[in-house]
Design brief:
This protein is of the alpha/beta class and 288 residues long. The chain is built from 14 helices and 6 strands. A 6-stranded mixed β-sheet has the order 1-6-5-2-3-4, with helices on both faces. Helix 1 crosses helix 2. The chain is globular and about 55 Å long.
Length: 288
């Protein structure tokens, strides 16, 4: 933020408030890359008053029509940033959904049609409003087709040149499939670059994601540096274990509770949770 004093020169009251916010944001976070950078960004945002709140990014691909409780873990962290005075930027990945996030996939995901994506995204804003503050001054909603659909092939080549295949293969998902001889589509390598380009376009100060998104979010830091921008902070949250008690909550696995499920269905599903998960659910889904 140009024209703002270095953190060391800010009033003690500002530094104290930044430390308080950082402590609050640590709750429920797995990792913050890095805490020192986040503390500095918080302090500068606080010092600016309401002029320069942090822009906190969360991307969601509409690969299915329902938002479930697993999504609300990271959305709850975004709401916490909002309550601390910062601006949430929700990216509806209507363009990245065409590729499908390869994270955790042991095969190439089928590409969705425009009609499927549009239908899935239809109620995302309404569903997100069950967790987020949707007032315009608190929430900015963007569709990444706004900028990704406009990229020329030359633009894609320039973006692809910023990452090496060796760096891509450091990712467990790709490394495991490569070693097993399973196919990896070239378009799948583009996914983290597309997500990183989102951060460049909206000038994200912070990106939120589950622990399975760590690679994608950190890749954006490198791309932002190359673009001459201050790299975003990455804050990851735990993955919520699904109703089966073994795998992460996922619609495809049928172990989920949708945020728009009827109350009786929610009650019935949540009563089936193994006792061993109760502490985890209280920690991740409540402020208790």
């Amino acid at each position: 933020m140009k024209g703002v004093a270095p953190v060391a020169d800010l009033p003690q009251s500002v530094k104290d408030e930044a430390a308080r916010q950082l402590e609050a944001l640590r709750r429920g976070a797995v990792q913050i890359f890095t805490e020192a950078e986040l503390l500095g960004k918080l302090a500068r945002a606080i010092a600016s008053g309401a002029k320069n709140p942090l822009r906190v990014k969360l991307g969601m691909d509409p690969t299915a029509p329902d938002i479930h409780l697993g999504h609300t873990v990271v959305m709850g962290k975004m709401r916490q940033f909002q309550d601390l005075g910062h601006k949430a930027v929700l990216i509806i990945g209507d363009y990245t959904a065409r590729v499908g996030d390869p994270t955790g996939a042991n095969h190439t995901r089928p590409m969705l049609s425009d009609e499927q994506i549009k239908a899935n995204a239809h109620t995302y804003f309404q569903q997100a409003g069950k967790v987020l503050d949707t007032r315009p001054e608190k929430l900015e909603v963007r569709y990444n087709s706004e900028w990704l659909a406009k990229l020329s092939f030359a633009d894609v080549l320039r973006l692809a040149a910023r990452m090496t295949v060796a760096r891509m293969l450091e990712r467990d998902t790709f490394e495991n499939r490569y070693k097993a001889g399973d196919p990896i589509g070239v378009h799948e390598f583009l996914y983290p670059l597309m997500q990183a380009h989102d951060s460049v376009i909206i000038r994200a100060d912070v990106e939120l994601g589950g622990t399975d998104q760590t690679y994608n979010c950190l890749a954006a830091r490198e791309i932002m540096r190359d673009a001459g921008l201050e790299p975003q902070i990455v804050l990851t949250t735990p993955l919520l274990v699904g109703l089966d008690g073994t795998e992460k909550m996922s619609k495809s696995k049928g172990n989920y509770v949708g945020v728009t499920d009827p109350p009786d269905d929610m009650f019935g599903k949540l009563m089936s949770i193994p006792d061993a998960l109760m502490e985890n659910y209280f920690t991740l889904l409540t402020d208790l």
